[in-house]
UniProtKB/TrEMBL annotation:
SUPFAM superfamilies: Thiolase-like. One of its GO terms (cellular component) is plasma membrane. One of its GO terms (biological process) is fatty acid biosynthetic process. It comes from the Bacteria. Residues 1-301 form the Ketosynthase family 3 (KS3) domain. The lineage of its organism: Bacteria, Pseudomonadati, Pseudomonadota, Alphaproteobacteria, Rhodobacterales. It is found in: Cell inner membrane. Keywords: Cell inner membrane, Cell membrane, Membrane, Nodulation, Transferase, Transmembrane, Transmembrane helix. The keyword Transmembrane applies. Residues 290-301 have a biased composition (Basic residues). This is Nodulation protein E.
Amino acid sequence: MKRVVITGAGTINALGPDVPSTLEAMREGRCGIGRLEIRDLDRLAVQIGAQVKGYDEAAHFSRQQLALCDRFTQFALIAARQAMAQSGLVVEGELETRMGVVLGTSGGGLTTTDDNYRAVYEEGKTRVHPFVVPRLMNNAATAHVSMEFGLQGPSFTVSTACASSNHAMGQAFHMVRSGMAPAMLTGGSEAMLCFGGIKAWEGLRVMSREACRPFSATRDGMVQGEGAAVFVFEEYEQARARGAEILAEVAGFAMTSDADDIVVPSADGAARAMTGAYGRRADGGGGGRLHQRPRHRDRGE
């Protein structure tokens, strides 16, 4: 089995438009949660979320691209561009035909769905834009990322609720580890902070109207966010040979299913997943985990 390392990372989220600004916000203890800026906010009981504010889509995409890309796809493309730029990978030859994309999403193009339901049911329109289906599909972000970089290897989307991106990265890990692909773009993207998205979650009665307070006795629900994070997973020897900066090594992965309650997670299920990851290192040993490496050129240790 081959070793799998991370050579590129990108993100756009409520804390910042890239990895450095996000890490800086974390170090300073800044919170990305605030009052939402969306249509018909007064009709919602939940009015807070981790929204990407001040986002100018025209600064990143042409009008033609925007006609095809929902907000969640735009976020994925921005994060993927950052990850590829940091990795320094040149997509040509074998890499072009074997490198692929596996992304996770739960909501997909929900903003597009919300806008068009509103147009048909509330505004009484009889037609929708011909690109509605390509915009709202869960695999839209994956498709656009693969086309952006000319990646012709395995490309698909994983949708397993809150575990979508973790599962996507697990599939990418297995592909690189097995030798099926020399490198993969992987991660996830969400953009569910629209009227329909929030209203649907209100019905589940799991959303806080006040704040995110994990591990607190006064916690009264969760808070949704939006954004994307994408990584370049690469085979270690390839990365080492081209002198790439190695950010981390992915040494294990496992996943489980509780097969129980529809909304209440099982601590045993989480424990089994973690235990499984620790027992499945790429080199056959135990103790699998994400190994952080110093930020320098790999020494080949």
